[in-house]
Amino acid sequence: MTNAQSDASETPQPEDWAGEMGTRWLAGIDQFESMIAPIGDALLARASFKTGEHVLDLGCGGGANSLTIAESVGPGGSVTGIDISPDLIAKARERAEAADTRNATFECGDAASYKPEAAFDRMVSRLGSMFFPHPVEAFSNLHGCLKQGGRLDLAVWGPPRDNPWMMEMMAALRRHIDVPPAVPRAPGPFAFEDTDYLRTVLENAGFADIDIIAYHGLQPIGGVGASPDVAVNFAMSSLAAGRLVQHEDESLQHRVREDLLTVFGHHHVEGQGVMMAGKAWLVSAST
Fold first, then answer.
1. 260-267, long-range: CB within 8 Å, 24+ apart, which pairs?
2. Of 41, 85, 118, 163, which residue is the least packed, with the fewest Cβ within 10 Å?
3. What CATH number is associated with residue 69?
4. What mean pLDDT do residues 97-108 have?
5. Mean pLDDT of the chain
């Protein structure tokens, strides 16, 4: 067994969404979006956007959710997607142009310091709000981007132990490398697993009427209909599993692939893909 050579420092480093992570997401964007689409659908159903609303989409990625929201709010409303990755913003703009969606615009920038020309009615984020190094300060800034009485809707990952799609992959890796332990509340996918902490962050940022419910569902690893082989390739090229072994020798990487193939084979459903359980928190709050 060897030590993982990435993310192994004692001080956790924020994921580089402006660089490597944004590039990885773009490379597998259709598979990523297919994997998290059920959570996005649940988030949008709960948010229930209305015609004429002006919406800020945080961490919009390739803009898939933004374009869906743009359709919901209609030509009298608008969506502004913001993401720190220039690659993903370029993709979002390309999609909007291809769809001739004129009420969606996209800006490359850091939501923690974003200053819009006018306040928004609504704010939403699908798994894009957990990466702030200083979350209270970031959400305080975002509070100021909303009109009085505006509403925030978030989807964030629940605890790792309730997300077998992640835990089973990490268990496969731990048979071959020392995986660095997760640091509670550090910027990353599970920063807001503790709902008490999440409430405190939002309250200290000025939000009120905070309501959090659990979402449980199945995540199609590698996208809907993916075979176990396709899911392994996706995990190794785009997910944390691949990043943790990218500097290891080919023999070890091959053994990891074989173990992941076994894991994904156990969860493969013909016609649906590699379906693994996940849990997220759906959060709403108001200014």
1. 260/169, 260/172, 260/231, 260/232, 260/235, 260/236, 261/228, 261/229, 261/232, 262/172, 263/168, 263/169, 263/172, 264/221, 264/228, 264/231, 264/232, 265/228, 267/221
2. 118
3. 3.40.50.150
4. 97
5. 91
